[in-house]
């Protein structure tokens, strides 16, 4: 075992494409992944899931993972929506949400009247022509458009094939409004720092494991961590 | 009158936002525009419409303009779809179309079996989550993805408000597939050159008139023409 490997005390794990393949049916676990989580925990390594999942609240997400056999609690999940809520409150921003229906409860405590920003998540079926035009019109009507994107992934794999991820729609709105989105979630440095704080391990003693070369591997490396790319999920 | 103005022998006119504001109801002419077309023609100036309109065949487009009172024939319209058809044939490309239903007849003569490229137009209501995912999957499955975009406008004005234009969706697919689209239509140099050839006037004796600073004004200037921006349409 290499010297750096002996120093590892904690793992950040991406979820979709690493632990399971998502899908309209809820998704299916990747063979051996539940056992891997069990063995990581039994070995004494710390573990935190670091996900850009924005199609469900953390509570529902963990419920789904547990039903698939993963021994995971809500505190072991770092996800973009709670991070976005902190940012909105800090800056007095009132969002118009273009997100998945199942994510809306994460923003229950946030003032959404008279929006002065747009929050974009992986809205899936909510990415309609009408909804995209609505978000665009709100942004273009602002003196200084503020677009907050929960991740900037290009695409991901579901059980019925590849799907465009939030990053593609972020680029559409960026171009139309001539603005740059603020990304909350991987690969943002601040997001990895939150995940490490929750993991309780400094970057040089942690490894990120994911299937996305930009969001997972690149983001972690920019934060001073090592990273491993799995050959499941979107890996081609 | 300035010297250059005396040299002008022909005009290229953008249509949406210059002659009329488009809309689900077919659109409404901008006050004075039909009379302006009549006076241009009566003055002896040559005139060609240079449009990125991709929501209808040229025949239907001209029928609509004539019903609004514009004295225009099909030969006086330069539009992206016929230009794209020439390009597809030249390069042996078989397109998957993500375009407006009413534009499909323009591609009647083109082989569309076993697609080896995607042609993107202003598909409007056809910009669904499912259709965008389908176009994305075809592109990402190609050894060398070829994306042809009928224009790269950011947005345009309809009678019920601003709408995202084809350029926004082009950017989404470009980002997801890590490719650069080939743009047919304004502001592509080749497209302006076609319009000038149809106008029968060299660039230094022609003026482009439009409401889009990039597609109309910038594109024409790069082609050696002068250009004027109107204060109707998307002008803000």
From TrEMBL, chains A, B:
The keyword Magnesium applies. It catalyses: diphosphate + H2O = 2 phosphate + H(+). It is found in: Cytoplasm; Nucleus. One of its GO terms (molecular function) is metal ion binding. Transmembrane segments: none annotated. Keywords: Cytoplasm, Hydrolase, Magnesium, Metal-binding, Nucleus. Signal peptide: none annotated. It comes from the Eukaryota. Phosphatase that hydrolyzes imidodiphosphate, 3-phosphohistidine and 6-phospholysine. Has broad substrate specificity and can also hydrolyze inorganic diphosphate, but with lower efficiency. Belongs to the HAD-like hydrolase superfamily. This is Phospholysine phosphohistidine inorganic pyrophosphate phosphatase.
């Amino acid at each position: 075992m290499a010297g750096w490997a002996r120093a590892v005390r904690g793992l950040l794990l991406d979820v979709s494409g690493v632990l399971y393949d998502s899908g309209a049916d809820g998704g299916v676990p990747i063979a051996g992944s539940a056992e891997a989580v069990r063995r990581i925990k039994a070995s004494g390594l710390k573990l935190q899931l670091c996900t850009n999942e924005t199609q469900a609240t953390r509570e529902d997400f963990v419920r789904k993972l547990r039903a698939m056999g993963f021994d995971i609690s809500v505190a072991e999940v770092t996800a973009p929506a709670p991070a976005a809520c902190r940012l909105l409150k800090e800056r007095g921003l009132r969002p118009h949400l273009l997100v998945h229906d199942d994510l809306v409860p994460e923003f229950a405590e946030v003032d959404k009247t008279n929006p002065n920003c747009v929050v974009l998540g992986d809205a899936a079926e909510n990415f309609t022509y009408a909804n995209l035009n609505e978000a665009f019109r709100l942004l273009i009507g602002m003196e200084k458009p503020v677009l907050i994107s929960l991740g900037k992934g290009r695409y991901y794999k579901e059980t019925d094939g590849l799907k465009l991820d939030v990053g593609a729609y972020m680029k559409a709105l960026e171009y139309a409004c001539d603005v740059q989105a603020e990304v909350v979630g991987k690969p943002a440095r601040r997001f990895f720092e939150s995940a490490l704080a929750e993991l309780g391990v400094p970057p040089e003693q942690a490894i990120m494991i994911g299937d996305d070369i930009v969001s997972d591997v690149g983001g972690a490396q920019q934060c001073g961590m090592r990273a491993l790319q799995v050959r499941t999920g979107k890996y081609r």
